[in-house]
Amino acid sequence: MLICKNFFQPKTFNSLDYKQIIMKKPSTTRRSFLKASLAAGTAAVISGTKGRAKIIGANDRVRIAIAGLNGRGGSHIGGFMGQKNVEIAYLVDPDSKAVSRRVDEVKRKGNYSPKGAADIRQALADKSVDAISTAAPNHWHALMTIWGAQAGKHVYVEKPMSHDVREGRIAVAAQRKYGVVIQHGTQNRSNAKIAGLHEMINAGKFGKLKISYGYCCKPRGGIGFKSPSVSPANLDWNLWRGPAVIDTFHQNYVHYNWHWFWETGNGDLNNQGTHQLDVARWAMDPKLTNPTRVMAIGGRFQWDDQGETPNSMFGIAEYPNGQQLFFNVRNVNYKGYQRQVENEYYFEDGGKIIRNEYFAKGSKTGEKLNIPDGKITPGGNWGSFINAIRANDPLMANGNVHDAHYGCVVGHLINNSYRLGKNVPFNKKAGQFGDNKDAFEHFGRLHDVMNNGVKVKDGSNYTVGPWLTFDPENEIHTGDHADAANALLKDFNRPGFEVPTIDKV
């Protein structure tokens, strides 16, 4: 059992470190490894041995509870119903109508009869349940993951795994302590071609990667205003809000617009954008964990509504080796809008990869890449999770707990820069990026698109976030704005739904 007493004094290992450690035989025993890890603080190794989860044989039925039945929950139901010898044992949601509807759906389409429940803890207390899958709102993701690990259940958690930086770190500690499989709902991790492309990039086939760029540009509309009201009779409001410090119900929370409020969601950067953030970080040096500096600029344009999160944003994350991650959110809507949900890669010699075509420096003609399949666990995102469970091997998860944490952290940090920003007139010529010419160029492109689409002109007010310095190992802010930024690393939780401290996992 490995317990750390101080969250802010860890040394961070990545999955490669762990693989190297466990492959050293016979000199490195489990006991010596644990002793070394304990000396290193909250060493973020992935545990795959002697956890609370029971061993499941190849012919044993995997019984799973699915929590969060509106929206994305339907995909979880369909995905696991399509797996051989997997039973949906529980369907869980504080919305009783959703529970009733989904139970009927599974009975109709499957050959088993799941139990309906409002509270995930009912399923966690059932020793016959092997795993949980959560598609609940973001503010529930980490707590359900931690509770699941503590109960010895494997966990498939929808993106983002965490609602803030620190609870993600605690989820990592929970996996380490209990040894369960945790897989993140980033389906691209199950894409062999993306894995293959990143293997080519990491092998240096195109030179050194300079910028890994993600886009989450899909049209959305405003959400208007909803007045405070009594929650509907079919909704257990206390359970729905769970850890989130919210006093008053309004209809914009259910069942999707909660994404656009800070207490419950993370904006599109860590909603849809989590997929492209994860891909962007995946392409970078695999030894990297967290960035050292982040900054964001954006706003909520076009709509005068109740939402809090930006619908347009340009974010930058700089890493210790000089590599950069850029991110572009553009969720306005207008005639001629061009959807862009993808990733691009820019190299130090001026080459770039766009839509699987390589463009040499200065060339306007791309070369279609022949990308071999990379190393992933087969079965797609649902099947790979089941395969990892049967193998009792957390490292087999396509998007393991480390991938989940580090991918989410960069989004949280960019969001936090935005949340600490000031509303100021932006002048494209003046820029806000110091000597970062690449950032100036790429934000300029976003600004031009916004100018043409929704008339965001030079001099329009943007929320300009400060540069935040971050210690990638200890996961704490330093330097200017550190106090304000560190206060955003962990949300307050409502009594009865507290994410445990790392020493209480």
Explain what this protein looks like in three dimensions.
- The protein is an alpha/beta fold and 505 residues long.
- The protein has 2 domains: 46-191 and 228-267 and 379-399 and 474-505, NAD(P)-binding Rossmann-like Domain (Rossmann fold, 3-Layer(aba) Sandwich), CATH 3.40.50; 208-220 and 269-348 and 402-473, Dihydrodipicolinate Reductase, domain 2.
- It is built from 14 helices and 18 strands.
- The longest helix is centred in the C-terminal third of the chain and has 19 residues, at 401-419.
- The strands form 2 sheets. Strands 7, 8, 9, 10, 11, 12, 13, 14, 15, 16, 17 and 18 form a 12-stranded mixed sheet that branches.
- Helix 6 (138-150) runs parallel beside helix 7 and helix 10 crosses helix 12 (401-419).
Mind sketching the topology for me?
Blueprint: H1 15-22, H2 30-39, E1 62-67, H3 73-81, E2 86-92, H4 96-109, E3 115-117, H5 120-124, E4 131-134, H6 138-150, E5 154-157, H7 165-178, E6 182-184, H8 192-202, E7 209-217, H9 237-241, H10 273-282, E8 293-299, E9 312-318, E10 324-330, E11 340-347, E12 352-354, E13 357-359, E14 367-368, H11 380-391, H12 401-419, E15 422-425, H13 437-454, E16 461-464, E17 468-471, E18 476-478, H14 482-486
Parallel strand pairs: 1-2, 1-4, 2-3, 4-5, 5-6, 7-10
Antiparallel strand pairs: 7-11, 8-9, 8-16, 8-17, 9-10, 11-12, 12-13, 13-14, 15-16, 17-18
Helix pairs in contact: 6-7, 7-12, 10-12
